[in-house]
Specification:
The protein is of the alpha+beta class. Helices cover 48% and strands 17% of the residues.
Length: 288
């Protein structure tokens, strides 16, 4: 069975509350065809989403769209607590479709982090706790309630985002002009044989300095980030072309198909072949 934190096609909805006594960093980045909502209950975390990093404090909400590469990591070794949930459109479609409202718009408005007021945090935590109390219940009534509460949550997050925009809250994004330039360079050249020393030379930096700066800013080491860009490209090819797996690997910058397969499964929970089959099965069922 694949890891539900990564990519669980057998679960249309997943929610978990966790508290950790010390620092914890995800072992690798990952991506999935689900929407994800992450709520920081206590402590401070650093979050990579695509090519940007953010500081997350207690009371902050992180919004992750489908297929976005992401990874959470420690800022320090202090305790932290969070609630995370992910879901797909099919799960709430029976309830959301008749509403005539785009409940997923909140994921597409540019903001990745929402900082709520104390009152908003209290309402949000109560809504999340209601979803947590429904865990393990699979009756038709509890499933209907889970869908309704999730719709309520998405509508409230849209209100929180409007409120944040009105307050013109400070951005959580961590910015560094060198790293921004390097990520643009990687996006344009990920098919090439990229190395730490080669990129460092390109930007007149020492490999040691670049390595430390990149890790501190993005929460990934340089090669992890390069692989995340390559895997996004590979995922698109698996969805839109009939290329052989070895051709996808080569076109996305991996040296061997075996290495590509290992990296892809670590990031998505599925092999490239399984991912392609799953994607087209879901696509056919939604258009049939």
């Amino acid at each position: 069975m694949v890891n539900p934190y990564v990519f669980a096609p057998h679960l249309d909805f997943f929610i978990e509350k966790a508290r950790r006594s010390g620092g914890y960093t995800m072992s690798s980045f990952h991506m999935h065809k689900k929407y994800e909502i992450y709520y920081q209950l206590a402590g401070t975390r650093r979050y990579l989403i695509e090519d940007s990093s953010y500081f997350i404090n207690a009371g902050d909400v992180v919004l992750i769209d489908k297929d976005e590469v992401h990874k959470a990591g420690s800022v320090d070794n202090n305790p932290h607590a969070r609630i995370v949930l992910n879901f797909n459109e099919e799960f709430i479609a029976p309830v959301s479709d008749p509403l005539g409202v785009d409940l997923f718009d909140v994921f597409h408005r540019g903001a990745k982090v929402i900082s709520g007021t104390m009152k908003e945090q209290a309402i949000l935590e109560d809504t999340l706790e209601r979803l947590l109390r429904l865990e393990g219940k699979d009756s038709p009534e509890s499933t209907a309630m889970r869908r309704l509460v999730l719709c309520e949550l998405l509508l409230f997050l849209a209100e929180m985002l409007d409120s944040q925009n009105t307050r013109e809250a400070q951005s959580h994004r961590i910015s560094n002009k060198n790293i921004d330039a390097i990520t643009r360079y990687i996006a344009a050249n990920y098919r090439e044989n990229l190395t730490l020393s080669g990129i460092a030379a390109q930007f007149y930096l020492s490999p040691y300095y670049l390595s430390r700066l990149f890790k501190r800013t993005t929460n990934l080491n340089l090669m992890e980030y390069i692989n995340s860009v390559r895997l996004r490209a590979a995922k698109d090819m698996l969805e839109t072309t009939g290329l052989h797996i070895s051709e996808v690997a080569e076109a996305s910058g991996f040296t061997t198909a075996a290495h590509f397969t290992r990296m892809f499964k670590a990031a998505t929970g599925l092999s490239p072949q399984q991912y392609r089959k799953y994607y087209h099965t879901r696509k056919d069922s939604s258009t049939g």
